[in-house]
Design brief:
By secondary structure, this protein is an alpha+beta fold. The protein folds into four domains: 100 residues, no CATH class; 93 residues, Lipocalin, CATH 2.40.128; 112 residues, Quinohemoprotein amine dehydrogenase alpha subunit, domain 2 (Lipocalin); 236 residues, Alpha/Beta hydrolase fold, catalytic domain (Rossmann fold), CATH 3.40.50.1820. The chain contains 13 helices and 26 strands. The protein has a nine-stranded antiparallel beta sheet with strand order 4-3-2-1-9-8-7-6-5, with helices on one face. A nine-stranded antiparallel beta sheet has the order 13-12-11-10-18-17-16-15-14, with no helix packed on it. A hairpin with a 4-residue loop joins strand 19 and strand 20. Helix 7 packs across helix 9.
């Protein structure tokens, strides 16, 4: 069905990226407590509740509820109270809240921003919730007292070529009802909040609104297994759960380096003065006096920490360890608004990330341990757009670049290539592939032909028209819930009309590449289905040739995917199940090339 690709065009089934919470210092904060407000999203009203807590060390942390969506205890990112303004990041929702505390301390007047859309949101202090008649009825079916469903339940399901473990932690909440959290150990995701948990007549039902998933199963007579089904995005997976005790280990990541490291590792900060933000990262320096060649690692799309962490893999940690052990200093840093870096991720574009990378270059040039004339940028995926952007306008500051799985065509063309390749790898028939491409082209054309002000309304009308023409079975296949669909439509519209997406869609990397005179390594995987080698590398090679650049090396590594893992098909559904974080052959090629051009 065509709309399968509209809803989650950059994702795949059960990719549960979870961002770590980070509290910043706050002393005697007047914002500790619960705060409730209502968002008006078109004709729909959605309540939002923040629970702000102050730790013994004065740091603030928070969680978020969306009661009207059945979502509770959603994790947030950094929580700050500075100069009378409370700021809360929710990276998992691509959202932020910033509000000014009233003089009486009873309200916060501010703005909720999500995927390029901003809505007024006033919060007031929330009193303890009194149970309603509806709550009492729910308690009858979900009461925790003596429930045989309480405990930890582990199961494994087949998703394409891989097996994914799922863990449900079912317990008793403070209100006497069943409450559950969910883990996906093979993807490094823990504590995923769920909605309602019911156990009635031997049947367990758990909703996970955050990822539009549900689990339903029947408890065996011996109370040790639950036979059931996981449903997500209109797709059903058999999932048998078994009682388990003790900690559940995350997927093995054998390449993660163990401390103590045989080199120096220093947490650092540096300023992007043009944006007025401070970025935080880690600089690793080889043993010895130096000076050393230095490289800056720039991450791919989405909010990334300094390790480019995803699905329990830490690609930049592994790569930096490999390079530093071989005599190359490495600077890796948290994206703006992520981890310990300041600024806001929402609303930023690739051009903003390039400015952050320029600030990283300036910082590295100021370190005595780094050799002059031997400083470069290695960018992965979207970072492969950033590296040539910076090199083309900072010829005296940047001495070489490594483009790792970087695009050689516009974002629009990348998405067409990616959609077609991934759908085929996941077994889609040719009609579905063709229809998905037709609808994607209509959407991208609409975005290009309309202003940022006009595009949201027109895109929403287009999507609603598509939904209205669908059968119930087609809606289920696309993961569209029954009843009003404003929430899912508005989320999709906000994503596709965000500043980042509009910039990425039309940005052409070729003009920047045509100005790059420094040595360049183009490296990609032959099984990369997100940035296909054959459709991108030749364009980059031709652009660099037009620049008169004779110091270009291009290599396509056999058997490797977009993350430079050894893969079977290259589909993103394999990423989490592969133990390998980086193929050693790819890291060896990068290290030898850098040492060769800086030696």
């Amino acid at each position: 069905m065509r709309l399968n690709r509209l809803f989650g065009i950059r994702g795949s089934v059960l990719i549960l990226t979870l961002w770590l919470a980070c509290g910043l210092a706050a002393a005697e904060s007047p914002v500790a407590g619960s705060w409730e407000g209502t968002l008006e999203v078109g004709p729909q009203k959605l309540r939002i509740v923040f629970h702000v807590a102050e730790g013994d060390d004065g740091t603030l942390t928070s969680t978020m509820d969306s009661p009207d969506q059945g979502a509770y205890d959603l994790p947030t990112g950094s929580t700050r109270f500075e100069e009378g303004t409370l700021s809360i990041d929710a990276p998992g929702l691509y959202a932020t809240f910033a509000g000014k505390l009233a003089e009486d301390g009873g309200s916060l007047s501010g703005t909720w921003s999500q995927r390029g859309t901003s809505l007024d949101l006033t919060l007031t202090r929330a009193a303890a919730k009194e149970p309603s008649a509806g709550d009492e009825q729910e308690a009858v079916s979900t009461t925790a007292e003596g429930s045989p469903a309480i405990g930890d339940w582990l199961g494994s399901m087949q998703v394409g070529p891989q097996k994914l473990r799922i863990v449900f932690h079912v317990g008793a909440g403070d209100n006497g009802l069943l409450i559950t959290t969910m883990d996906s150990p093979d993807q490094g995701a823990e504590g995923i909040p769920t909605g309602v948990t019911r156990f009635v007549d031997g049947k367990l039902s758990i909703t996970v609104p955050r990822i539009r998933g549900t689990y339903e199963g029947s408890l065996a007579e011996d109370g040790k297994t639950i036979q059931g089904t996981w449903s997500q995005g209109g797709v059903n997976f058999d999932l048998e759960l078994k009682r388990t005790e003790g900690p559940i280990e995350n997927a093995a990541r054998p390449q993660d380096p163990a401390e103590p490291y045989p080199y120096r590792s220093e947490d650092v900060t540096f300023d992007n003065e043009s944006a007025g933000i401070t970025l935080a990262g880690t600089l690793t320096l080889p043993e010895g006096d130096g000076p050393f060649p230095g490289v800056i690692l720039v991450s791919g799309s989405g909010p990334q920490n300094r390790d480019e962490e995803l699905m329990n893999h830490r690609p930049f940690l592994v790569l930096s360890d490999y390079l530093t052990r071989r005599g190359i200093a490495v600077l890796r840093y948290d994206d703006r608004g992520v981890g310990e870096s300041g600024g806001e991720f929402q609303g930023a574009t690739t051009a903003d990330f390039a400015a952050d990378a320029e600030a990283a270059v300036a910082y590295l040039r100021g370190r005595d341990e780094i050799a002059r004339g031997k400083i470069g940028i290695a960018g992965h995926s979207e970072g492969g757009l950033v590296a040539p952007m910076v090199a083309s306008r900072s010829k005296k500051a940047v001495d070489f670049i490594v483009v790792m799985a970087g695009p050689g065509v516009t974002g629009e063309e990348i998405l067409y290539q990616q959609t077609e390749a991934i759908l085929r790898a996941n077994g889609a028939d040719e009609d579905s592939v063709r229809e998905s491409l037709v609808d994607a082209r209509k959407i991208y054309t609409l975005l290009k032909e309309n202003s940022a002000e006009d595009a949201p309304a027109k895109l929403k009308a287009f999507i609603e028209e598509q939904i209205a023409s669908m059968t119930d079975a087609e809606k289920a296949q696309a993961g569209i819930p029954e009843g009003p669909s404003d929430e899912i439509v508005n989320a999709q519209v906000a994503q596709l009309t965000s500043p980042w997406f509009r910039y990425f869609l039309t940005y052409d990397p070729i003009p920047a590449l045509e100005k790059v005179k420094q040595p360049v390594l183009l490296i990609t995987g032959a099984k990369d289905l997100q940035v296909l080698a054959a459709e991108n590398i030749p364009h980059m090679e031709a652009a660099l040739k037009r620049a008169g650049n004779k110091r270009v090396e291009s290599v396509t590594m056999p058997g490797l995917n977009h993350l430079f893992q050894t893969a079977e098909t290259g589909s993103p559904t394999e990423y989490a199940a592969i133990d390998e974080t980086w193929a050693p052959a790819a890291m060896k090629r990068i290290a030898e090339w850098i040492l060769g051009v800086t030696g």
